[in-house]
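Methods, example record. To illustrate the input and output format used throughout this study, we show the complete record for Cyclin-L1-1. The sequence lines were provided to the predictor; the line carrying structure tokens was produced by it.
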Amino acid sequence: MIYTAIDTFYLTDEQLRDSPSRKDGIDEAAETTLRVYGCDLIQESGILLRLPQAVMATAQVLFHRFYCKKSFARFSAKRVAASCVWLAGKLEESPRRSKHIIFVFHRMECRRENLPIEFLDVFSTKYTELRHDLIRTERHLLKEMGFICHVEHPHKFISNYLATLEAPELTQEAWNLANDSLRTTLCVRFKSEVVACGVVYAAARRHRVPLPEEPPWWTVFDADEAAIQEVCRILAHLYSLPKAQYIPVYKDNDSFSVRRALDTHASKESPASAVASDRGTPVPSSSSQEKNSLTKARREKVKENSDTKDKPLPAELNGKGGQAANSKIERPEPNVDRAEERERSRSRGRDRDIRGRDSDHERERDRAKRHRSRDKSSGYSDKEKSRHRSSRDRAGYYSSGDKDHRHRRH
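The corresponding predicted structure is encoded as:
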């Protein structure tokens, strides 16, 4: 039974041995490799997304906790790692957009598996599928955690312990060991205080810094010697392992790239490969088979075209039918005709615009001439008109003033 509380999510050795992955036929070595691989993805993606270390540490702890309840055969390690980064960013108040997380994991997969880096279109069906799966996996994470995602890291205890022991030179080494311990199951087996004591002990042994033993220093921090030795043993085993590679134990396709998804789909649809593998004969890949089929089809088409060209026309087509066929052949392409028609229509429109502009200018000139002729016939020049108008305005002004004066007298 796994008890999940606000600060406790710890398992025993027996519970880890009877994990859901073991029940699905995955051995201990494969499970350890997949755990390390998923944590490597989380750490690398956090660096590319420029996330703080607290987000990456929380995501790795969530990754280990989830696979204590679910199997690697039923949930993809790649997809779960991406969802853990997305959820941890929200928990540690450093959120990132789902689009950026999908792009980062897509690029990491292309680099790790030596695939050509391709552009992942936001409007493609592959991106929509990845985004829906990211949201769905986050729901599974929250459901299995019971929506209790509180995590305590050993990092916050390291600086206090070393300050108490008066060994500040071990801070960086102990911090690095604490980061590496997140790739193991120490976060689900021991409390963060015990892991911090084990990390400090390993750093002191590596740098040969003596620590107080009478009384033992770890008793002050609520830890025992057996747990510290177990922490050191697991860290030593981690450093003895080679670089983790992905093991395809997941039943469905879990690739972030489009080409790998197409290759797996084609391999599933080709039954000839399975039959030949049972017989022991080598089978070419699906891509090579498709290329061979395409080349054969092209050769057949070329042969048919050459045969039709070499054959003479029948006697029935020598008459009217032959003339019709020749007329069809001699006709120009419709695209050329359409282009010529467009150019002609454009030139006609330009000519019309020019003619319209010329006619407008002529009309304005005629109007100006008419006004000039009218002014000459009336006998007044422009200066005389302005004087006449000003005299009228003054008369009106004085007349209005006189009226006001009269009203005031009355």
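Annotations derived from this record:
The two ends are 114 Å apart (CA to CA).
The mean pLDDT is 77.
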